[in-house]
Design brief:
The complex is a heterodimer of chains A (about 210) and B (about 475).
Chain A (H helix, E strand, L loop, with lengths): L1 H23 L3 H5 L10 H12 L26 E2 L8 E2 L5 H23 L7 H12 L7 H13 L5 H12 L4 H4 L2 H13 L2 H4 L3
Antiparallel strand pairs in A: 1-2
Helix pairs in contact in A: 4-9, 5-6, 5-9, 6-7
Chain B lengths: L6 H12 L8 H4 L5 E7 L14 H5 L12 E4 L5 E4 L13 E7 L8 H10 L9 H4 L8 E4 L13 E4 L4 H13 L5 H13 L5 H23 L12 H14 L5 E5 L10 H4 L2 H21 L1 E3 L4 E2 H4 E7 L2 E2 L15 E2 L3 E7 L6 E3 L18 H6 L11 E2 L4 E2 L15 H11 L31
Parallel strand pairs in B: 1-7, 1-10, 4-14, 5-6, 5-7
Antiparallel strand pairs in B: 2-3, 4-13, 8-9, 10-13, 11-12, 15-16
Classes of the chains: A mainly alpha (about 210), B alpha/beta (about 475).
């Protein structure tokens, strides 16, 4: 019975997702902002999102540092950036391809590493709720918390509701499975891997 | 950081790369023979009066043509009997005359005078934009269809999913970052998860799913790309021109298999000389331009592609150089020694060179090339007057595609198919790469229904 419910939930969510894709395909609001469903959100937008969700106000957080280049027409421009023409709202290099995907991996590797370091060292730049969830994970395998529930809190702090709930449950299932990240990694390495698996999720990086 | 690819990943990546959906080069055409395409665009509307479609200073004295050069042009004659008047600035390219095909009198789509519309026409033959012809020249298996070194802001290109727009100056940094990816190894559980989710998300038919598929393919191909990019480190000299920087990067990308097609934007020139003060600076502007172009050809000739077989980059690369349009003979009501110039899409100029192109060739001519005793232009067709009653715009003469010569006919009515057009030039390049005709472009891309007939290519300049 439980399996049936889960299957129904997955099918429902998948249908919703497909329907959502179709409805969004002519999203005039996105298009008028030069953005396109299915394209990368761009470095600036992603940085703002991460800061707003897990960092305390006025904390320093700069994704471009992981590219070693913060100039507007430099490497960050390859991750989805406005073309710089006065009055233009065209987002360049935002369609996913091998180059921008490679650079997103580098950026998110650096970001996840920094977040994991802060989280496991009790860094006071992190937002309180996220810091508490991350700290529990840092301390695994000690601690008596409900791991699946802690992972959900961690996911929701970073992803919020950008992804369907089914995506979160699938993530929790994958991470806690035998041979998954929770079983194979610990401490800072685990937090980094979990963070990167969320930050690199298409629902986090791509416009919807 | 860690990027680990299984054999299955690599197989999937190969399938993804192979299934990009373009009518690419015919494999039978060139077997595995390398063939690259380097397009140099001079944005802003470079006046071909200062290049290879000049006019004698006597035309200025007669008050007909604004010309800020201080000496007369000279005759530049091709081995095919075609000829043109080359400005004094163009002398810098004389050492490469035997490799150059000059195409004058190229009609951009009539009725469209804007920069963006004509840039679109230059790339796709359609003033509203569409598929850039560059990706059709790429062989399958390259990580990117094309790289634009510099930005053509107004271009509306619909097939740029697997492309990159970047300043040439960041290429060294990109190579460094790629090396960072390539040097690290090991397992990364997150990556398998993300690849699986991108695959699941890509199963639908909406735009998000389309993006997820691109993301999945990007993840799969990124490791192989990183290995290629690692080898593309270039060094730039102090004050090196953008054209040369772009060419250096393009050569690396060609050689290392990153892309077969690069578009270099010749930034740093103010060709849009509406103001008299800007037009008056044309001699300095074109002196610098031709210095840079000579530097480009020097680099093409001197950079080895396959030293063992004596092949230079020019031997394996088709080069196309042009602006989106030319400029008028002046502005209405202003004296020819004190005027700016406006847009003229009726007679563009294109330089072609390199692999597949016959050198020392001149094809196409423009009108308004003769003055009567009264100082007025002679031999002006009704077709010209219907488009430009003020006779401020040189216009390409009709062209006989069979003989390869400009026609002296003076048609009463305008019909684009009788002239060299942007579509003709594009189809010439497509033909030179052996691209199947179903990818060729037409002079009338917006026509609804009926058979779309591709514009005739310039077969006479193809080797």
């Amino acid at each position: 019975m439980k399996l049936k419910s889960i299957a129904f939930f997955w099918v429902s969510m998948s249908s919703l997702l497909v329907a959502s894709c179709k409805q969004r395909s002519d999203d005039s609001e996105l298009q008028s902002a030069g953005r396109r469903v299915g394209s990368f959100k761009g470095l600036a937008a992603v940085e703002t999102t991460i800061k707003g969700r897990i960092m305390l106000p006025n904390s320093y957080f700069d994704l471009a540092q992981y590219l070693g280049d913060s100039s507007e027409d430099g490497l960050p421009s390859l991750l989805g950036a406005y073309d710089g023409r006065p009055g233009s709202s065209s987002l360049q290099n935002a369609t996913p391809n091998a180059v921008n995907t490679m650079l997103w991996q580098i950026v998110m590797d650096g970001a996840a590493s920094a977040i994991a370091t802060k989280a496991c060292s009790g860094g006071n730049e992190l937002e309180t709720h996220f810091k508490q969830a991350a700290k529990k994970i840092c301390d695994w395998p000690t601690g008596a918390d409900d791991r699946a529930q802690t992972l959900r809190e961690f996911w929701l702090d970073l992803m919020r509701y950008d992804a369907p709930q089914a995506e979160m449950e699938a993530w929790v299932g994958q991470m806690t499975a035998s041979g998954g990240s929770v079983a194979t990694l610990q401490g800072q390495a685990l937090v980094k891997d979990l963070t990167q698996s969320i930050l690199m999720n298409p629902f986090f990086l791509l416009e919807q | 950081m860690a990027i680990h690819l299984s054999r299955r990943d690599l197989l999937q990546a190969g399938v993804a790369l192979a299934a990009t959906g373009f009518t690419r080069r015919l494999s039978a055409q060139g077997s595995s023979s390398p063939h690259f395409f380097l397009q140099v665009v001079m944005p802003g509307g470079a006046d071909n009066l200062y290049m290879f479609d000049s006019r004698p200073l006597a035309f200025k004295a007669a008050g007909r043509v604004a010309n800020y050069a201080s000496s007369d042009p000279s005759v530049w004659e091709g081995t095919n009997g075609g000829r043109c008047l080359a400005s004094p600035f163009a002398d810098a390219l004389k050492p490469y005359k035997n490799r150059l095909a000059i195409v004058n009198g190229v009609h951009m789509p009539p009725g469209f005078e804007g920069h963006d519309q004509n840039v679109n026409a230059l790339l796709s033959a359609n003033p509203f934009g569409g598929k850039y012809f560059g990706p059709f020249l790429a062989s399958s298996g390259r990580p990117l269809d094309f790289v634009s070194l510099g930005s053509l802001f107004g271009a509306n290109v619909s097939n740029k999913e697997r492309s990159l727009t970047m300043s040439a100056r960041i290429a060294p940094g990109l190579a460094d970052k790629a090396a960072q990816v390539g040097q690290t190894t090991g397992e990364s559980p997150w990556r398998q998860w993300v690849s699986a989710r991108a695959n699941a998300c890509g199963a639908g038919d909406g735009m998000l799913s389309e993006g997820c598929r691109g993301y999945r393919d990007g993840l799969l191909a990124s490791q192989a790309l990183a290995q290629k990019l690692t080898k593309t480190k270039v060094e730039f000299g102090a004050d090196e021109p953008e054209i040369i920087k772009g060419a250096k990067v393009a050569f690396k990308y060609f050689t290392e298999g990153v892309a077969d097609v690069c578009l270099v934007v010749a930034d740093g020139f103010d060709f849009d000389t509406h103001a008299e003060t800007d037009a008056a600076k044309s001699p300095e502007l074109f002196t610098k331009l031709f210095q840079d172009l000579a530097g480009l050809f020097e680099a093409l000739v001197k950079t080895p592609f396959d030293a063992a077989n004596g092949l230079s980059m020019l031997d394996v690369t088709t080069v196309m150089i042009s602006s989106e349009f030319s400029r008028t003979h002046g502005q209405s009501g202003k004296p020819s020694d004190k005027t700016g110039t406006d847009h003229n899409p009726q007679s563009n100029m294109v330089l072609l060179a390199g692999k597949g192109i016959k050198g020392d060739i001149v094809v196409g001519e423009s009108d308004l090339d003769a003055l009567g005793a009264d100082g007025n232009f002679t031999n002006v067709s009704g077709a010209h007057k219907s488009l430009d009653s003020g006779l401020l715009k040189r216009m390409g003469k009709p062209y006989n595609f069979d003989t390869g010569a400009a026609s002296s006919e003076l048609p009463a009515e305008y019909k684009l198919d009788n002239y060299i057009s942007a579509a003709s030039v594009i189809n010439t390049v497509l033909s030179g790469f052996g691209v199947a005709k179903d990818a060729w472009v037409t002079n009338d891309p917006s026509r609804q229904g009926g058979e779309k007939v591709p514009a005739k290519p310039l077969q006479k300049i193809l080797a």
